[in-house]
From TrEMBL:
<dbReference type="GO" id="GO:0004497">
    <property type="term" value="F:monooxygenase activity"/>
</dbReference>
<keyword id="KW-0408">Iron</keyword>
<feature type="region of interest" description="Disordered">
    <location>
        <begin position="1"/>
        <end position="25"/>
    </location>
</feature>
<keyword id="KW-0479">Metal-binding</keyword>
<dbReference type="InterPro" id="IPR017972">
    <property type="entry name" value="Cyt_P450_CS"/>
</dbReference>
<dbReference type="Pfam" id="PF00067">
    <property type="entry name" value="p450"/>
</dbReference>
<dbReference type="InterPro" id="IPR001128">
    <property type="entry name" value="Cyt_P450"/>
</dbReference>
<keyword id="KW-0349">Heme</keyword>
<dbReference type="InterPro" id="IPR036396">
    <property type="entry name" value="Cyt_P450_sf"/>
</dbReference>
<dbReference type="InterPro" id="IPR002397">
    <property type="entry name" value="Cyt_P450_B"/>
</dbReference>
<keyword id="KW-0560">Oxidoreductase</keyword>
<feature type="compositionally biased region" description="Low complexity">
    <location>
        <begin position="1"/>
        <end position="14"/>
    </location>
</feature>
<keyword id="KW-0503">Monooxygenase</keyword>
<dbReference type="GO" id="GO:0016705">
    <property type="term" value="F:oxidoreductase activity, acting on paired donors, with incorporation or reduction of molecular oxygen"/>
</dbReference>
<dbReference type="GO" id="GO:0020037">
    <property type="term" value="F:heme binding"/>
</dbReference>
<comment type="similarity">
    <text>Belongs to the cytochrome P450 family.</text>
</comment>
<protein>
    <submittedName>
        <fullName>Cytochrome P450</fullName>
    </submittedName>
</protein>
C-alpha cells in the first residue's frame, strides 16, 4: 500500500498512513468491484492528528462532494455511508429504520482500533429498551438533577481557581483546572469517592486514546467495568460516602438492576459511558479556552458583555470540532433513500454532527465564530434518541469554566507561543494536551 499523507491542513499528521491508500479526493484504486458499480467513489478517511480547532480537511472534502458519500476508516472491514448535511443528519438519527443494536453484529469500518462500548452499552441499544435504560439514570441528568450539582460544582471550581491564584503564573490550565474540574463533577454525579478519582481518570485516558495501544485500552475498559460491577453489587453506595438520597448514577443504576429494569451488564456499560463521557468536557473546554486565548477580541467581548455568554457558549460548542472522524455508525434495517441516494438494508451509515454544524443552509458563514448567531440549533450533543445524556451538565460546566476564565483571571494569556501547544495524539476526542497560561 502507498503511504500518502492527507493534504489540506498545515500540521495535520496521518497516524496510520499504511491504511490510507488514497489521498482524499482521489478514488481508491482497486476498490471498484462489480458490487460497487454505480455507487459514489469510495474515499479513505485516515486517522489524522489535527492541531487546534482546524477542521478536518477530509471531512471538508466529503462535504463538498455531496450529501451522502462512501467512506472507509482505518479499522474494521468494508465501507460505510457518510451523511453530512444538517437535515439529513437529523433525519437519519431520528429514524428508527436505522439501528444501533445491529452494529454490534458487525465489524463496521471505524476510526478506533478497539471498539469502545460494551455490547450492552446505551449507545448500542434501540428503543424501546434504550429508553428504559436511559430512564434509569434520568433523574441525575434532568434540569433539576444538574442544577442540584451547580453549587457543589461552583465550589469545586472555586477551589481550583483559588489554588491557581495562590501558586501564581505560569501554570498549566489543563492540569490545574480543565482536567480536574470535569473529573470531579462527573465523579460527584456518579458517586465516586475522592480517593478513587485519579484511578478513574487514568482508565478514562487509556480508553479514549489509541496511542497506548488497543490492549491497554481494553484492559482499562475491563478494569473500569469490574469496578462498576462491584459497586453495583454492593448496592451503589460505599461506606463513608455522603449523599444519602441515592440520586447518584451508580445508586440509580443499582436500584434499576434490583428492580429488574436493566441487566447488570447494561448498567455497567452505561456507567462506563457516562464516566468517560464526563471527561469529554476537559477537551471541549480546552478548545474553548484555546479559542478565547487566541482571539482576544472574543474574550474581551465576554468580559464587557456577560449577557452574551450563554449564546457564545452555544456558538463555541457549534464551532469546535469535538471529535476526530465519526462516532458510532448505524445499520439500515430496510432500504431507505437519503438525499436521493438509495441506502440498502444492511448497509452501515455514519452521520457527522461536525459537518451538520457547518451546513451553510442552516448556519450562514459557518466557518466564522459569531456570538450573535441566533438561532443556533447546533447538533453538537447529537440528535434523536441517542442525544448526549450529559448535554445539560456539559453546558453547566462550560458556563462555569468560561465565567472563571473571564472573571477571575484578568489579563489571562498563553504563557507559550501558540505553536508550542500540543494536541492529543491518537485521540477520539480532540483537545490540547496542556495549556500553559499566565495572567
Ligand atoms: C462538551 C461535551 C460533550 C459533547 C460535545 C458530547 C457530545 C455527544 C454526542 C455527539 C453524542 C452522541 C450522539 C449519538 O450517538 O448520535 C453523545 C452521547 C453521549 N454522551 Fe456526550 N458529550 C459531551 C459531554 C458528555 C458528558 C458530560 C457526559 C456524561 C456525564 C456524556 C455522556 C454521554 C453518553 C452516555 C452518551 C450516549 C447516549 C446514548 O447513546 O443514548 N457526554 N455525546
Amino acid at each position: 500500500m502507498s503511504s500518502e499523507t492527507t493534504t489540506g491542513t498545515a500540521g495535520a499528521r496521518t497516524r496510520t498512513p499504511d491504511l490510507a491508500s488514497a489521498a482524499p479526493g482521489c478514488p481508491v484504486a482497486g476498490t471498484g468491484t462489480a458490487v460497487d458499480a454505480g455507487l459514489p467513489p469510495l474515499r479513505h478517511w485516515p486517522a489524522i492528528d489535527l492541531d487546534g480547532v482546524d477542521f478536518d480537511p477530509v471531512l471538508a472534502e466529503l462535504m463538498a462532494e455531496g450529501p451522502v458519500t462512501r467512506i472507509r476508516l482505518p479499522h474494521g472491514t468494508g465501507w460505510a455511508w457518510m451523511v453530512s448535511r444538517y437535515e439529513d443528519v437529523r433525519m437519519v438519527t431520528g429514524d428508527s429504520r436505522f439501528s444501533r443494536a445491529a452494529v454490534m453484529e458487525r465489524d463496521v469500518t471505524r476510526l478506533a482500533p478497539h471498539f469502545i462500548p460494551s455490547k450492552d452499552a446505551v449507545g448500542l441499544q434501540d428503543p424501546p429498551h434504550h429508553t428504559t435504560l436511559r430512564r434509569a439514570v434520568a433523574p441525575a441528568f434532568t434540569g433539576r438533577g444538574v442544577e442540584r450539582l451547580r453549587s457543589r460544582a461552583q465550589d469545586m471550581l472555586g477551589e481550583l481557581v483559588d489554588s491557581m491564584l495562590r501558586d501564581g503564573p505560569p501554570l498549566d490550565l489543563t492540569e490545574r483546572l480543565l482536567a480536574p474540574f470535569p473529573l470531579a463533577v462527573v465523579c460527584e454525579l456518579m458517586g465516586i469517592p475522592e480517593h478513587e478519582r485519579p484511578q478513574m481518570h487514568e482508565w478514562t485516558s487509556l480508553i479514549l486514546s489509541s496511542s497506548a495501544g488497543a490492549d491497554r485500552s481494553e484492559q482499562a475498559k475491563g478494569a473500569m467495568c469490574g469496578y462498576f460491577r462491584e459497586r453495583l453489587r454492593a448496592g451503589g453506595k460505599q461506606d463513608g460516602e455522603d449523599g444519602e438520597d441515592g440520586e447518584d448514577v451508580v445508586s440509580l443504576l443499582a436500584a434499576a438492576v434490583a428492580a429488574g429494569d436493566v441487566t447488570e451488564a447494561e448498567a455497567v456499560g452505561l456507567a462506563l459511558l457516562i464516566q468517560i463521557g464526563g471527561e469529554a468536557v476537559t477537551n471541549n473546554t480546552g478548545n474553548m479556552a484555546y479559542i478565547l486565548l487566541t482571539r482576544p477580541d472574543l474574550l474581551a467581548r465576554l468580559r464587557e458583555e456577560p449577557e452574551v455568554r450563554p449564546r457564545a457558549i452555544d456558538e463555541l460548542l457549534r464551532y469546535i470540532p469535538h471529535r476526530n472522524s465519526v462516532g458510532l455508525s448505524r445499520i439500515a434495517m430496510e432500504d431507505v433513500t437519503v438525499a436521493g441516494v438509495r441506502i440498502r438494508a444492511g448497509d452501515p451509515v455514519y452521520v457527522s454532527y461536525l459537518a451538520a454544524n457547518r451546513d451553510p443552509d442552516v448556519f450562514p458563514d459557518p466557518d466564522r465564530i459569531d456570538f450573535d448567531r441566533d438561532p443556533n440549533p447546533h447538533v453538537s450533543f447529537g440528535h434523536g434518541p441517542h442525544y448526549c445524556i450529559g448535554g445539560l451538565l456539559a453546558r453547566l460546566e462550560s458556563e462555569l469554566v468560561v465565567d472563571a476564565l473571564a472573571d477571575r483571571f484578568p489579563g489571562l494569556r498563553l504563557a507559550v507561543p501558540v505553536d508550542q501547544l500540543r494536541w492529543r495524539p491518537g485521540a477520539l476526542i480532540r483537545g490540547p494536551e496542556g495549556m500553559p497560561v499566565a495572567w
